[in-house]
């Protein structure tokens, strides 16, 4: 796949350069940069209908350029889809964070382990007292 991408990339660069040259060879209405290549050179090569030939050739090159760009984007996306280190790390974290159904059924939830009569961690309403630290309770005893 890497060889195909490199070959298509080389063809893409050649098409881009050729398209720049063909666009510059076209004769603008003000005889701008097209006259730099010589006014009669393109007429001698392509004949009297130089403008029509260059316009059609530019259209074909532009279409081929866009097709190559689209193909290269698909190939790059396909190449990088499975090789992303970030993607692999995220998949590892997701599978590690999700407990298996068998492990979830075996371990009781913390809410279910508290018995209603034991009063563990539950104070009656209106009788909230701060918890005594072990140092304070040790100093209170002689």
Write the layout of secondary structure elements.
Blueprint: H1 2-25, H2 41-46, H3 50-81, H4 85-97, H5 101-106, H6 110-113, H7 134-140
Q: Major β-sheet, in short? A: none
Q: What's the order of the H and E elements?
A: HHHHHHH
Report the portion of residues in β strands.
Answer: under 5%
Dominant shape: rod-shaped
Low-confidence stretches: none
- Our count of helices gives 7
What is the averaged pLDDT score? Answer: 73
Total count of strands: 0
The first-to-last residue Cα distance is 82 Å
Helix content: 55-70%
Q: What is the chains' assembly state?
A: single chain
Rg: 38 Å
Computed structural class = mainly alpha
Architecture overview:
- The longest helix is centred in the middle third of the chain and has 32 residues.
- The chain has 142 residues and is mainly alpha-helical.
- It is built from seven helices and no strands.
- Helix 1 packs antiparallel against helix 3.
- The radius of gyration is 38 Å and the shape is rod-shaped.
Task: Describe the structure using short key phrases.
mainly alpha; 142 residues
Describe what is shown at a glance.
This protein is mainly alpha-helical and 142 residues long.
């Amino acid at each position: 796949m890497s060889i195909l991408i490199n070959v298509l990339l080389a063809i893409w660069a050649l098409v881009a350069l050729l398209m720049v040259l063909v666009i510059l060879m076209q004769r603008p209405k003000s005889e701008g940069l097209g006259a730099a290549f010589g006014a009669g050179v393109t007429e001698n090569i392509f004949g009297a209908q130089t403008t029509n030939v260059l316009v059609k050739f530019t259209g074909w090159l532009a279409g081929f350029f866009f097709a190559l760009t689209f193909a290269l984007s698909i190939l790059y996306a396909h190449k990088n889809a499975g090789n992303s280190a970030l993607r692999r790390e995220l998949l590892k974290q997701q599978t590690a964070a999700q407990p298996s159904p068998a492990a979830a059924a075996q371990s009781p939830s913390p809410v279910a382990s508290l018995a209603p009569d034991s009063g563990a961690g539950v104070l009656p309403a209106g009788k909230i007292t701060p918890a005594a630290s072990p140092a304070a309770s040790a100093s209170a005893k002689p």
